Amino acid sequence: MTYIEEKGKLLKAAEKQLSIASTKDKNIALEKVAQAIEARREEILRANQEDIEAGKASDMSAALIDRLTLNNERLDGIIEGIRTVIKLPDPIWKSNKVWTLENGLTISQMTTPLGTIGIVYESRPNVTVDAFSLALKSGNCIILRGSSSAIKSNTALVQAIKEGLSNSPISEDVVQFIDDTDRDLVLDMLRANDYIDLIIPRGGRGLIQFVIQNATVPTLQTGEGNCHTFIDESANLEDALKILINAKTQRLGVCNTCETLLVHEAIKDDFLPMAYEAIKDKIELRGCPRTLEVIQVKEATEEDYWEEYLDAILAVKVVKDVDEAIAHINKYGTKHSEAIVTESLTNANKFQRQVDASSVYVNASTRFTDGGEFGFGAEMGISTQKTHARGPVGLEQLTTYKYLIMGQGQVRE
Amino acid sequence: MTYIEEKGKLLKAAEKQLSIASTKDKNIALEKVAQAIEARREEILRANQEDIEAGKASDMSAALIDRLTLNNERLDGIIEGIRTVIKLPDPIWKSNKVWTLENGLTISQMTTPLGTIGIVYESRPNVTVDAFSLALKSGNCIILRGSSSAIKSNTALVQAIKEGLSNSPISEDVVQFIDDTDRDLVLDMLRANDYIDLIIPRGGRGLIQFVIQNATVPTLQTGEGNCHTFIDESANLEDALKILINAKTQRLGVCNTCETLLVHEAIKDDFLPMAYEAIKDKIELRGCPRTLEVIQVKEATEEDYWEEYLDAILAVKVVKDVDEAIAHINKYGTKHSEAIVTESLTNANKFQRQVDASSVYVNASTRFTDGGEFGFGAEMGISTQKTHARGPVGLEQLTTYKYLIMGQGQVRE
Predict the structure, then answer these.
(1) A119 lies in the same domain as A53
(2) Secondary structure of residue A247 in the 3-state scheme
(3) Domain containing B140 — which CATH number?
(4) Chain B residues 380-399 with CB within 8 Å of chain A
(5) Which of A4, A177, A235, B237 has fewest C-beta within 10 Å?
(6) Which residues face B406 on adjacent strands?
């Protein structure tokens, strides 16, 4: 039996219990896990310190070290995250579709857990706990594969989770952690169709592409966001400026941040200088030739339009009209979040109808694409694919359904 | 540019138009296609005759020849199928989820087409037209790869479809047919993530597994049905017999047919002889050792329980109770359709809650798992996977959604 098969068999056995567990038992388990993390705080921070030292020794960048780092405040945030999930409504065994056929059969479409979710993720150790809590609340088992740079932190966190579960009505087997950094195990995981129902990669483009190219298990592609803000001819320029500043500068390294500004040619002479003055101290602008006629910035290359900078850089392009803006977005975008600022009803409708993205904004910042902001309470990521779930992946998006059919001896004619 | 890239670019261009086409235009296009198939009837039947002759020359089985065969009656059925789809409600640009956040943003979750659907299918040429109509009505482009044994029939049908479209408001590029039987083109199709949003294999286990093992495009696994009927201790045995006969004998070669009968040990001496007498002339029974104590049938092997016979064979197993029945089903089943016949409310609930399948019946035949029977009007197949769609795949299941967010200058704090 392979390593993944061994874990898989434990998960399948645990699934039977978890898939029908009561909300009360799931919430008790989550609270016990929160308490166990609290109780093991010292040990978790010590393990994290070892990862950080190993990272420094191998010349890890300051940004990555920061992502890897846990401290008391971040651990408080992780524990608070669990308690947020406890308060969310249980998404399982609900229906808003029940109907009765002419022959008297009543069909109910009931939500059920997916089964087991696999997460392949990069350095942030908080994902270990966040993903576990969302999976457990939605009745799903979880198998976690973190990065080798966070192996000690993740191991300590998983120990705390298992300790919490062992004091609860839910089996500690519902969570499995791949504690071996052999990369072949990731491949085994991606192909474990008998044991895993959905794989979610959380990380950069390289990781996502590796998962898509190699998985036979269904995958949910999340988090790549090359987002645009288009300022239309009729835009209220004060609103446009406020929205652009928020979308680009409120937080740089996240997927719903604006990476390219598109400006209608009729207002370029008014809007570009306003935008430039407002953000030039914080953000490097790279413009198309027509942008350079108005403001003195670096010239943008074709590559700039494809780039998800996740950094203090903004590409700028002047476009002829809303159609050119839509065409640009549908070519270069990642189907994540796109915004138009306009007073034209026709253009707002056209933009929302024709732009192919999970979340399409009129007169608001793309930064709102987030499970918390949308009212989902928490999220497992933002899906940029069209199948299964699109946009913020909250508890509801981690479910499937089954049809219950109640008969009185009906047969098909 | 590869063959698939060329087709892909045509599809992407056509998607822009089709994704926002009105219901009226889509229905006109479908009616024109129905008329074109009618007008080209002779030509289609002639092409089909060539496929049949080639099949016979290469010793194709009688069953496969039958599946391949078109005649006037079957063509009538195909044309009627298109008119059924015309009458179905358009699933696109609808919402039953609109909400407003505290900050005044209104979010609407609107249904949209997936984009382009790829179908890889075996010999039945009617799939060419059925899949096209469902895709078009749901606003999706389609790329079709039929079997080489039906290449002439499919080519003639696609010509008729394109002719119909050319007299309609919808571009004929919305349908692309792979008219080259090179198997490598299937692989290219399964990996064309830039052009295809969902691949649906329609055929036997071998085809489905080939697609799952090789696709990087998201797939929808359909049609494998190793279905069970469990007769519980408290069952009304007259109902049980009627349901078993229907589930096993009404149609043999389809995915929602019963393949294994499970019988509670307390009623085996009553029910097994009844069942045996009722179906023994039509169906070969293969029983577990305890079955053989009651009726004289062939002994079942472990392989029998794994088999989707699609044939006049039924495996029979005596079980201790509902828990053993559930465990057997969850081990050997394909998550398609499962039934319990019982008068026990407790066991009915337990069976529906714990059996992991798309459709779980109490006191009715598994043969009802079908888009038409469920009231979906038509179907693209029965999904046996948990992600995206489960159970009958009708028009609604061929959609995704986007969030429209309407603001008045909101930014994130």
Answers:
(1) yes
(2) helix
(3) 3.40.605.10
(4) 385-388, 390-391
(5) B237
(6) A362, B106
Question: Where in the sequence is the domain holding B364, given as residue range(s)?
Answer: 227-371
- Cα separation of B370 and B372, whole Å? 5
DSSP structure string for A143-176: EEE--GGGHHHHHHHHHHHHHHHHTSSS-GGGEE
**Chain A hits for B364, Cβ within 8 Å:** 105, 405-411
Average pLDDT, chain B: 96
**Cβ proximity of A112 and A19 under 8 Å:** yes
Surface of B (337-356) touching A: CB under 8 A: 352-354, 356
B58 is a domain residue: yes
Instruction: Please give the pLDDT value at position B412.
Output: 96
> CA distances (Å), A10 to each of A172, A411, B133, in order?
10, 39, 44
Model pLDDT for residues B311-353, shown as the tens digit of each residue: 999 999 999 999 999 999 999 999 999 999 999 999 999 999 9
Q: Report the Cα A335 to chain-centroid distance in Å.
A: 13
Per-residue pLDDT, A175: 98
Same domain flag for B267 and B348: yes
- A411 lies in a domain? no
Q: Which residue of A has its CA nearest to B98?
A: A374
> What is the model's pTM?
0.95
Same-domain pairing of A215 and A262? no
Of A111, A81, A107, whose CA–CA distance to A396 is shortest? A111
pLDDT at residue number B211: 96
3-state secondary structure of B16: helix
pLDDT in tens, A213-238: 999 999 999 989 999 999 999 999 99
Residues A155, A258: one domain?
A: no
B402 interfaces chain A, CB cutoff of 8 Å:
yes
Residue B391: strand pairing partners: B383
Number of C-beta neighbours around residue A17 at 10 A = 16
- Say if B105 is an interface residue toward chain A (CB within 8 Å): yes
Number of domains in chain B: 2
pLDDT at position B63 is 85
**C-alpha angle B112-B114-B118 in degrees, rounded to nearest 5:** 155
**pLDDT 10s digits, B218-250:** 999 998 999 999 999 999 999 999 999 999 999
Whole-number Å distance between alpha carbons of A244 and A262: 10
pLDDT digits (tens, 9 = 90+) for B147-202: 999 999 999 999 999 999 999 999 999 999 999 888 899 999 999 999 999 999 99
In a domain, B377, yes or no: no
Quick one: pLDDT at residue B180? 86
User: Which chain A residues are Cβ-neighbours of B361 within 8 angstroms?
Assistant: 405, 407
